[in-house]
């Protein structure tokens, strides 16, 4: 078994880390609205389309003009409601399958995934999007040699099978599912600082990924964490440049202090000499160094990621990638306006 200090697993976030954060807003939503009129015109009475249409409120589901106007209104207000997500999933599935939609991975991502995979590093995904949606995205990418990269990924995690991404317990759960590796053999890459800190608290190594289009990071993030703008900044040996809790001291200096502190006699480890348990826990949670990252004053982004339970759209996507059996058709919604949650 490899030494515990060796990275054996790279755990990846998706949006803002491997894929443009604006993909859903700027590509998927507009695509659905663009193809909707033709789908309504040609598939209005098709049994498969009716499965989605029948979930709409009665005042919209039986009239084509009212149906389309309602969809446009919900999308423009970014309303989160299940029957809209169901329809969007159906429209996106066709776009992926036809090749019109490709997940826009950053240019460095496919090559680095192949490189890590070739070095026997396990690649895993952890995203707030459902596992079926993750697989659909990685099956239809803009990678040059092969658009389907799912074979490179050994495991998939979402907020259902792991938990919320800002909770340390979620990363502990992921690590527990792979007991062949210790937590500090995991390297988690994400654009979300709170997720990075949760992973570190759980004993993993973690690095902030700052991609074009992401919210600007506060200047203190560059002081507290390693930040990379491309996966190519991560060195071949996953060298640890410094430890999270020990500021700018080197890993060697921190390791020496950790060894000395660990060998203190009980009488010596009292009062001012007592080790800080939280600081000692952080030892070994090293971070990969960044090359060429300039520390500049930047305003805080002040945003949190919103995570949802999987919708029926996710179940439909699961069907598209063979992850779930067909869902029985539900009866039409009762007459009256839907309860819309914004």
From TrEMBL:
Signal sequence segment: none
Localisation per UniProt entry: Cytoplasm; Nucleus
Biased composition (Pro residues): 325-335
Biochemical pathway: Amino-acid biosynthesis; L-methionine biosynthesis via salvage pathway; L-methionine from S-methyl-5-thio-alpha-D-ribose 1-phosphate: step 3/6; Amino-acid biosynthesis; L-methionine biosynthesis via salvage pathway; L-methionine from S-methyl-5-thio-alpha-D-ribose 1-phosphate: step 4/6
Residues given in the record as substrate binding sites: 127-128, 165
GO cellular component, one term: cytoplasm
Record: residues binding Mg(2+): 13, 15, 191
Keywords, comma-separated and alphabetical: Amino-acid biosynthesis, Cytoplasm, Hydrolase, Magnesium, Metal-binding, Methionine biosynthesis, Nucleus
Chain intervals for the UniProt region annotation (Disordered): 261-342
Cofactor: Mg(2+)
GO molecular function: acireductone synthase activity; magnesium ion binding
Gene Ontology BP annotations: L-methionine salvage from methylthioadenosine
CDD domains (alphabetical): HAD_EP (cd01629)
HAMAP family the UniProt entry points to: Salvage_MtnC_euk
Similarity field: Belongs to the HAD-like hydrolase superfamily. MasA/MtnC family.
Its biological purpose: Bifunctional enzyme that catalyzes the enolization of 2,3-diketo-5-methylthiopentyl-1-phosphate (DK-MTP-1-P) into the intermediate 2-hydroxy-3-keto-5-methylthiopentenyl-1-phosphate (HK-MTPenyl-1-P), which is then dephosphorylated to form the acireductone 1,2-dihydroxy-3-keto-5-methylthiopentene (DHK-MTPene).
Assembly mode: Monomer.
Protein known as: Enolase-phosphatase E1
Gene: UTR4
């Amino acid at each position: 078994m490899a030494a515990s200090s060796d990275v054996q697993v790279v755990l990846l976030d998706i949006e803002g880390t491997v894929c443009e954060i604006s993909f859903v807003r700027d590509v998927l939503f507009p695509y659905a609205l663009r193809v909707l009129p033709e789908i309504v015109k040609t598939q209005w009475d098709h049994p498969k389309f009716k499965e989605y249409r029948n979930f709409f409120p009665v005042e919209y589901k039986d009239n084509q003009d009212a149906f389309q106007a309602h969809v446009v209104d919900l999308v423009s207000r970014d309303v989160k409601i299940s029957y809209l997500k169901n329809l969007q999933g159906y429209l996106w599935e066709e776009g992926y399958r036809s090749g019109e939609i490709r997940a826009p991975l950053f240019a460095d991502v496919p090559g680095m995934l192949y490189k890590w995979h070739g070095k026997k590093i396990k690649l895993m995904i952890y995203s707030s999007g459902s596992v079926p949606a993750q697989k659909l995205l990685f099956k239809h990418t803009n990678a040059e040699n092969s658009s389907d990269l799912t074979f490179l990924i050994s495991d998939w995690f979402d907020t259902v099978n792991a938990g919320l991404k800002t909770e340390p317990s979620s990363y502990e759960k992921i690590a527990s599912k792979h007991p062949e590796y210790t937590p500090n053999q995991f390297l988690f890459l994400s654009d979300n600082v709170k997720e990075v800190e949760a992973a570190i608290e759980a004993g993993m190594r973690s690095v902030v990924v700052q991609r074009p289009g992401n919210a600007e990071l506060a200047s203190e993030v560059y002081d507290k964490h390693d930040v990379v703008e491309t996966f190519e900044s991560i060195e071949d040996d996953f060298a640890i440049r410094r430890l999270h809790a020990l500021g700018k001291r080197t890993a060697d200096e921190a390791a020496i202090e950790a060894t000395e502190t660990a060998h203190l006699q009980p009488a010596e480890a009292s009062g001012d000499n007592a080790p800080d348990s939280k600081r000692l826990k952080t030892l070994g949670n090293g971070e990969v160094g960044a090359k060429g990252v300039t520390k500049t004053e930047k305003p805080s982004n002040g945003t949190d990621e919103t995570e949802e339970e999987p919708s029926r759209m996710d179940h439909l996507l699961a069907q598209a990638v063979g992850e779930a059996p067909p869902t029985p058709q539900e009866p039409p919604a009762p007459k009256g306006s839907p309860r819309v949650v914004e």
